[in-house]
Amino acid sequence: MSTSKDPEIVIIGCGVSGIAAAHRLVKAGYRHVRILEATGRSGGRIKTAALGNTITEIGAAYIHGPSEKNPLFCLARDYGLLPPEALNPENQAVDVDEDPPLVPNWFSSSGQRLSAESMEPAEELFSEILDNTSKFQNPKNTSWKSVGHFMRTKAQNQAAGRWKDKDETTRQLLLSAFSTMLKFECCGSATHSMDDIDLAGFSMFKSLRGVDCTLPRGFERLIENLMSELPSDLVTYNCPVRCVHWSNTEGGLSPVTVECENGERIAADHVIVTVPLGYLKKHHSTLFHPPLPAHKLKSIETLGFGTCDKIFVEFESPWWDADCEIIYLVWEDEETVSDQVSDVSKSWIRKLVTFTVHKPSEKGSHVLCGWICGHEAEYMETLPEEEVRESITKLVRTFTGNGTITPKRILCSRWFTDPWTYGSYCHPAIGCTAKDLKNMMEPLPSQETLSQPLQVLFAGEATHPCFYSTVHGAILTGWREADRLISHYWASVSP
Ligand SMILES: Cc1cc2nc3c(=O)[nH]c(=O)nc-3n(C[C@H](O)[C@H](O)[C@H](O)COP(=O)(O)OP(=O)(O)OC[C@H]3O[C@@H](n4cnc5c(N)ncnc54)[C@H](O)[C@@H]3O)c2cc1C
Ligand SMILES: *[C@@H]1O[C@H](CO)[C@@H](O)[C@H](O)[C@H]1NC(C)=O
Ligand SMILES: *[C@@H]1O[C@H](CO)[C@@H](O)[C@H](O)[C@H]1NC(C)=O
Ligand SMILES: *[C@@H]1O[C@H](CO)[C@@H](O)[C@H](O)[C@H]1NC(C)=O
After folding, report:
1. Is beta strand 456-458 parallel, antiparallel or unpaired with respect to 270-273?
2. Tens digit of pLDDT for each residue in 77-131?
């Protein structure tokens, strides 16, 4: 079949990586391309929703590194979806690692405002230690067990010497602020704790230049624009795939048969699998027949996949400063530097210590986005929304010292409970190396058989060597696998 010029190509999953792959193949003239999507919508982890008058992002919100080298930036620019400041070349040139942090408001659990200036030593120490994690790119060179172990120990060791002119209470408060930032850092990796992140693996992620921006009209506009350029019958919705039979096990003419939940069987020359790593971890044993090779399975297990959720909260009037971009809550009673709570069901709300501030809309709504991750987020997902709202109300009242502040409404994401995702995005868990991401993207069969190569290909966020966990990473993997097929056929028709 590999000499056929118009092969049957099935893409599993209509998230941005599957859409990107389809786009590339259709533009290259391939006519037998279809996407099978489990749910009734396209976009996957790109999902825009409304909270009252406010556009909120249940999934991806930011273009990380909006500059020319970012394919997502270029697409969003071409579709006219970027905010004006993102088009500014100066904005695109900023090295994010040296960028001044967001304007913070700090509150303590005794209901006091803490001045931003008084918290600067904690912010400085945090960013210095975080930067220093990049010195451990060689995994064999360190006795630190994890990013968390390194960061917690360094902070605790530095406090006395660095802050020797401060009294014990102040030093303790600064360390508590350090814990707050460590908890927020967990959200960036969608991990339960930074103790679960590999210190060498942590540096595999590469950031691009440019100050992160949002798409003011909603991230889903990107999906709509991409979909409008594809044939309208390309996607079959509400069509979960049950099993990919590869290696011609069914004895038919095609090397692969895709078996759907509804019993339909689709013959294909190539299948591009874009299901999330969370889904793969849970269902790989039934999703592939014959099973995946051992090295691939090992990497699916080693690479981490965890939960990061958002809780959007709308207030009648703001209780933060007009120029505030981020709100940090500091628990004064947590003695040691830590990013985990001791009793998840009782104290899960203690993991939520950071709110980012939505730019106020013309309609005057005041919305915060609370960030929570790990087992605490997974527990939160089991609660009714009213109970989450009550916990948020109590939290805000405690930290502002104002017993009357009441949220108007809330909206939370529930990515762990989503049966097609089982979490938010991937991270380099302990023991994870570049080899694991390489194994993730390797097509099947592993050994190139001349007659039926490239039967099953793998795209999706968790298959990018350095932009994993992002939308631009996901797009690049879709293009990569489409190009793999295109160059395969190009080579086979060339003299
Ligand atoms: C809370 C949150 C915040 C984020 N924030 C950002 C951000 O600010 N910036 C950023 O760049 N990235 C962010 N991300 C990550 C980004 O959303 C993802 O990396 C990206 O959208 C993943 O695209 P994908 O195509 O790989 O996977 P997905 O979008 O998950 O697509 C996979 C598709 O496969 C489908 N599927 C699953 N199983 C089956 C099956 N058996 N049969 C058929 N279909 C199936 C799913 O329904 C889904 O539609 C965030 C993610 C989350 C969850
Ligand atoms: C971080 O690294 C720099 C440069 O090596 C070093 O001077 C500094 O002490 C380190 N900071 C911490 C907190 O370990
Ligand atoms: C790594 O090992 C080399 C050689 O042993 C040593 O010089 C260097 O300081 C080590 N780096 C770290 C971060 O431990
Ligand atoms: C407490 O919050 C309410 C509602 O936001 C506000 O009207 C009131 O002025 C606040 N009280 C104090 C003492 O700040």
Report:
1. parallel
2. 999 999 999 999 988 999 877 667 899 999 999 999 999 999 999 999 999 999 9
Rounded to the nearest 10 degrees, how much is the dihedral formed by the CA atoms of 213, 218, 223, 224?
-140
- C-beta of residue 272 within 8 angstroms of C-beta of residue 481: yes
Residue 106 domain-assigned (yes or no) = yes
CA 86, chain centre distance (Å):
21
Say what the pTM is.
0.96
User: Under 8 Å CB-to-CB from 295, ≥6 apart: which residues?
Assistant: 439
Angle ∠(133,117,314) on CA atoms, nearest 5: 85
Domain boundary (384, 412, 440) is at 412
pLDDT digit string, tens, across residues 422-449: 999 999 999 999 999 999 999 999 876 6
* Residue whose CA is at the smallest distance from ligand 4 atom 4: 405
Residue 470's CATH number: 3.50.50.60
- Distance from residue 298's CA to the centre of ligand 2 (Å): 35
Q: Which residue is listed with tokens 């996949």? A: 305
Query: Which mutation among 46, 72, 275 tests ligand 1's pocket best, with the greatest number of atoms within 8 A of CB?
Result: 275
With both helix axes pointing from N to C terminus, report the angle between 116-132 and 147-162 in degrees, rounded to the nearest 10.
130
Q: What is the number of residues in the chain?
A: 495
Tens digit of each residue's pLDDT (9 = 90 or more) over 119-137: 999 999 999 999 999 999 8
Q: Within this chain, do residues 38 and 104 fall inside the same structural domain, yes or no?
A: no
Hey, is 290 helix, strand or coil? coil
330: which 2 tokens? 């500091």
Q: Domain containing 319: what range?
A: 99-206+308-412
249 vs 483: CA distance, rounded Å:
27
Indicate the residue type of 97: D
Indicate if 268 and 315 belong to the same structural domain.
Answer: no
Alpha carbons 212 and 471: distance in angstroms, whole number: 13
Q: Which ligand is nearest to the CA of 128?
A: 2
Among residues 332, 330, 352, the alpha carbon closest in space to that of 341 is found at 352
pLDDT tens track for 246-261: 997 555 679 999 999 9
